[in-house]
Amino acid sequence: MSDVVLRLAEVERVYRAGEGSVWALAGVSLTVRAGELVAVMGPSGSGKSTLLSIAGGLEVPTSGSVEVAGVGLGGLDSTAVAHLRRDRIGYVFQDLNLVTDLTAAENVALPLELGGSSARAARAAAVTALDEVGLPEVAGRFPDQLSGGQQQRVAIARALVGERRLVLADEPTGALDSRTSLAVLQVLRARIDAGAAGVLVTHEARYAGWADRTVFLRDGRLVDATPERDDARRLLTEPS
Amino acid sequence: MQRNAVRWGLLALFVDGPKYGYQLRTELDTRTGGSWAVNVGQIYTTLDRLVRDGFVATAGTDDQGRELYALTEPGRAALADWYLTPVTETERPRNELAIKLAMATQDPSVDITIVVQQQRTESMRQLRDYTDLRRQANEDVDLTWSMFLDYLIFALEGELRWLDHVEGTVLRRRYARPGAASAPAPIPADAAESGRVRR
Description:
The complex is a heterodimer of chains A (about 240) and B (about 200).
Chain A: E1 4-17, E2 20-33, E3 37-41, H1 48-55, E4 63-68, E5 71-72, H2 78-88, E6 89-92, H3 104-114, H4 119-132, H5 148-160, E7 166-170, H6 178-193, E8 197-201, H7 205-208, E9 213-218, E10 221-225, H8 232-237
Parallel strand pairs in A: 3-8, 3-9, 6-7, 7-8
Antiparallel strand pairs in A: 1-2, 1-4, 4-5, 9-10
Helix pairs in contact in A: 3-4, 3-5, 4-5, 5-6
Chain B: H1 3-13, E1 19-20, H2 21-32, H3 40-52, E2 56-61, E3 67-71, H4 73-84, H5 96-104, H6 112-136, H7 143-176, H8 190-194, E4 197-198
Antiparallel strand pairs in B: 1-3, 2-3
């Protein structure tokens, strides 16, 4: 279907470990559509981060296929994968990786400039993206002049700038207080509602509640997923 | 529904002015999203008791001829007392989930990880749906409703954390049972079966 943005099919990722092999992912299939946010939960070592790396083309699966915005990653050379990553995929990590010598706007504009946009166009898009995350006033400031929450929102603006179809977030609320975490989730959610697709790795059930579906990973396998949305109010009127 | 909760919940509704009987039901519904599901009969019985105890008194009729009731001074004082007294009697220890899992951990024929996962999926579904409602709720417009949803969200979060804990505890014990291979690494016993480590 055309609105599928991410499709993982029977993805396996095996690491050699001495004499044996460790299955980080042991046959995972997952589809994420435009406008859909999927949360991934599971104990440490269950394969959450590997799943995200493979979805983002940062790691290559041992077997199985990965498709982003209709393009199979398996058929691309590393340069083409790098371009796809830069143009179509946004990452939000716990450690923000903002460039300290660049202003907030320059940080956000960076992926576009690397992609060949003119400095002027990239700057304009960056200002729009900062506006979208509620931080129009910090464009000219450097990362060390921003609070933790502001830095995280700048990182999200960078992940969302341009025509990104897929947003991958690994514990994006990690070190933030609950109020700032909610602000970050609101921004992420708004972008998804505007048509992007997202995968959110989190160990906080409260934040996974913002996703449309939560999938549970255990030992490299998807063991379960919450069902599709129903009428939420029904919950409150069921006899208990 | 605990009788006490209905009694005080109804009394609290009178704080912003006189009400007629059926209005209490509508307001209770609005403020709790219908989750209290108190029937009309129970509303009127409770109202009668509040009148009998002198916490509420009749206060004329509205323009449609409906009998109005209003909070009395003793009622206001009792309500203030209620707010300042901590809640000690709840249904907490008799929660079905607590009983189910406590019993299941003692039954060798039950795979607790499956029980936990089934529940986790369901609790997560509820958490998502309440989060949806909470995102739509506006604190400035309806604080009671927002706080009520927050209560449900925090309770489910606690439930999910407890499920993780139960699962972890049971797996650790299963792994540590006499006769099982002993090794320092905290790999759950089912890991080998599910193919994470193959040699």
